User: Which sequence fits this backbone?
């Protein structure tokens, strides 16, 4: 789920307004966009990209490692299932508000065909200086810079803020993994953490969590096995209970999914949890310094 | 979208073939008496889309029409949770032998539909889970399939359901079919009662329709319950914006749920109190004009933070909306900006030029200034 320059990217819904806008940004950044999909315009070319009728045809002719969807909710299921059937390795589902039962069908198809879903409702993946897939401001130089810190975030806007703060502090990023705001995600915080743990280009990891669900708790279990410094910020400390805060995941019912439980789980796994996004960069710098010198943060881990 | 009990039973359970008690919905005490005359000994049940109706005194027995009228007049107008009782369900009394729990929902971790069944009906599932976790049976279902009879039988095995077992197995099958065909987020029968005469009947039902699927359930969506909302929240909803009015004095206008929650957190961190949650993320980022109007219309607001971090949401488009609304609204409270990400150069230039305001480089600084100004 770390997107590379060599990855062949197929854009579903390339001819729409957003598909066009963001594909141009991706190409300009260096993403290897090899095909677009639109059954009505197969054989044409759009913003210099050849159009195929289906993802399977694109995969057969030009190859497809990653597919990204700019497809409205009512059509998302069909598009995603056909991309999985074309056996793309990674399918980035940007679409928000896909009916839950369609999301389940998408995950079932992905499981059957070995496709990794990122999302739904993700802002996408960025490998600064190399490639990006999705709707992140990878091209804004004040926000992203190449480096060795991996960032995992449910939210695109908050992930943008966190990368901005890191970049300002002179800390570049190895990868941004937007996992998405839906309740049923193909890639969880834990999955992303594992990928960054195994990535030799990543020295430290920032987890941007949110109240609701149990993904931070599950990630904390994995974090116990890790040696890389980790810093987390969890949004929603001030959110009132029993109110859905936009992202379907961000609702606290009773004690489940609450801020305190997530913070405690992460801290007991050796993750440094900060109160505000502006504290992230300093905590990462401290973690990297301590990691090298065997200081207090490294000592807190096993 | 939540549904009241009567709507859930008649729109979802009954068409699926699941037995429900005879009942009539009424809106006045006089109608309650009439309904009781037809039905006989009855239960008078407040119709509000929230739990704990019984504990709140919203469910009472009545043996005669006169009793029904009296009880109805007590319950009508009562407040339960955030809701005022405006409708009652007059339902025949049931002679209950046993109470079960049955539900279908989605399991976020497994990404599949999950059937739950328990012999400990009548309590909340959270209570059952806390007190008798072993009493809950679970069955994950392949979304591309239906639950197989042998899987349902295996789930119910050893529960000593006696002659009720075939009826229960059938109801679970029907409940799952209704969950699928009606795009339910949750479809719950609690209690599912075995009556003294041997019938199994759904005595209460909770149905939550997936908001993302309302567009393809037009025939039942009209039967959904309106959320309890303040006037301001209702204005937001009418504009397609999710607004939650809070009791603080620092207004928040940010894009994306994550960034908005974070802005609220940082306000609290510096000792302030957020006045609202308002999401203008996703496609809604183009609605910043109406959004500014909404946050400024909140009577408690003494200052405002506008925090844009553009990814998909273009900050230049959002800033344009704010500038447009500004000319009309002429904000009387101080406004503090922080703008970064997609379109930031244009957005910052626009705010400087048109509003004469210098956006803060750091969100925390904008928030601290706003907290101070609100005090």
Assistant:
């Amino acid at each position: 789920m770390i997107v590379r320059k060599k990855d062949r990217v197929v854009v579903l819904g390339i001819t729409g307004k957003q598909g066009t806008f963001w594909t141009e940004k991706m190409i300009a950044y260096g993403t290897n966009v090899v095909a677009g999909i639109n059954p009505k315009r197969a054989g044409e070319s759009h913003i210099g990209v050849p159009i195929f009728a289906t993802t399977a045809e694109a995969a057969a002719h030009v190859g497809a490692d990653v597919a990204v969807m700019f497809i409205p909710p009512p059509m998302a299921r069909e598009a995603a299932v056909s991309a999985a059937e074309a056996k793309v390795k990674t399918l980035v589902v940007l679409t928000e508000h896909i009916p839950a039962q369609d999301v389940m069908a998408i995950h079932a198809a992905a499981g059957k065909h070995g496709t990794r879903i990122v999302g739904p409702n993700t802002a996408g993946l960025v490998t600064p200086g190399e490639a990006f897939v999705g709707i992140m401001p990878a091209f804004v130089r004040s926000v992203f810079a190449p480096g060795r810190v991996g960032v995992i975030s449910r939210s695109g806007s908050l992930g943008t803020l966190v990368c901005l703060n890191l970049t300002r502090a002179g800390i570049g990023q190895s990868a941004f993994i937007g996992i998405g705001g839906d309740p049923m995600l193909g890639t969880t915080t834990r999955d992303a953490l594992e990928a960054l743990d195994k990535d030799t280009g990543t020295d430290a990891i920032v987890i941007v969590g949110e109240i609701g669900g149990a993904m931070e708790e599950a990630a904390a279990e994995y974090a116990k096995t890790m040696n890389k410094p980790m810093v987390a910020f969890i949004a929603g400390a001030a959110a009132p209970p029993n109110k859905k805060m936009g992202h379907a995941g961000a609702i606290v019912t009773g004690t489940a999914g609450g801020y305190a439980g997530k913070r405690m789980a992460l801290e007991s796994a050796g993750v440094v949890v900060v109160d505000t996004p502006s504290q992230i960069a300093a905590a990462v710098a401290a973690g990297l310094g301590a990691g090298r010198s065997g200081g207090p943060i490294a000592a807190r881990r096993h | 979208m939540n549904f009241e009990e009567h709507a859930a039973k008649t729109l979802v359970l009954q068409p699926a073939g699941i037995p429900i008690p005879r009942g009539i919905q009424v809106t006045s005490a006089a109608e309650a008496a009439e309904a009781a005359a037809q039905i006989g000994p009855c239960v008078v049940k407040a119709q509000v889309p929230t739990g704990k109706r019984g504990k709140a005194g919203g469910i009472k027995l009545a043996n005669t029409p006169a009793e029904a009228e009296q009880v109805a007049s007590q319950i009508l107008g009562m407040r339960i949770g955030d809701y005022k009782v405006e409708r009652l369900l007059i339902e025949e009394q049931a002679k209950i032998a046993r109470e079960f729990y049955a539900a279908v929902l989605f399991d976020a971790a497994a990404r599949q539909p999950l059937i739950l069944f328990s012999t400990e009906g009548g309590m909340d599932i959270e209570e059952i889970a806390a007190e008798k976790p072993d009493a809950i049976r679970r069955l994950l279902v392949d979304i591309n399939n239906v639950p197989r009879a042998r899987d349902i039988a295996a789930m119910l095995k050893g529960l000593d359901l006696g002659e009720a077992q075939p009826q229960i197995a059938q109801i679970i099958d029907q409940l799952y079919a209704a969950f699928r065909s009606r795009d339910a987020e949750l479809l719950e029968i609690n209690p599912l009662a075995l009556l003294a005469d041997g019938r199994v009947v759904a005595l209460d039902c909770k149905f939550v329709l997936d908001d993302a699927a309302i567009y393809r359930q037009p025939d039942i969506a009209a039967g959904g319950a309106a959320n309890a909302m303040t006037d301001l929240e209702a204005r937001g909803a009418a504009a397609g914006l999710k607004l939650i009015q809070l009791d603080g004095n620092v207004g928040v206008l940010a894009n994306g749920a994550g960034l908005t929650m974070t802005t609220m957190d940082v306000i609290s961190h510096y000792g302030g109190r957020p006045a609202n949650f308002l999401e203008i993320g996703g496609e809604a980022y183009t609605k910043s004009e109406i959004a500014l109007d909404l946050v400024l219309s909140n009577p408690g607001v003494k200052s405002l933070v506008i925090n844009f971090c553009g990814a998909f949401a273009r900050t230049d488009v959002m800033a344009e909306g704010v500038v447009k609304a500004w000319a009309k609204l002429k904000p009387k409270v101080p406004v503090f900006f922080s703008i970064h990400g997609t379109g930031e150069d244009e957005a910052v230039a626009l705010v400087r030029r048109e509003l004469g305001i210098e956006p803060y480089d750091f969100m925390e600084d904008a928030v601290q200034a706003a907290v101070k100004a609100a005090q």
In short: Confidence is low (pLDDT under 50) at residues 247-254, 292-302 of chain A. Chain A touches chain B through 61 residues (CB under 8 Å). Chain A has two domains: 9-118, 140-300. The radius of gyration of chain A is 19 Å.
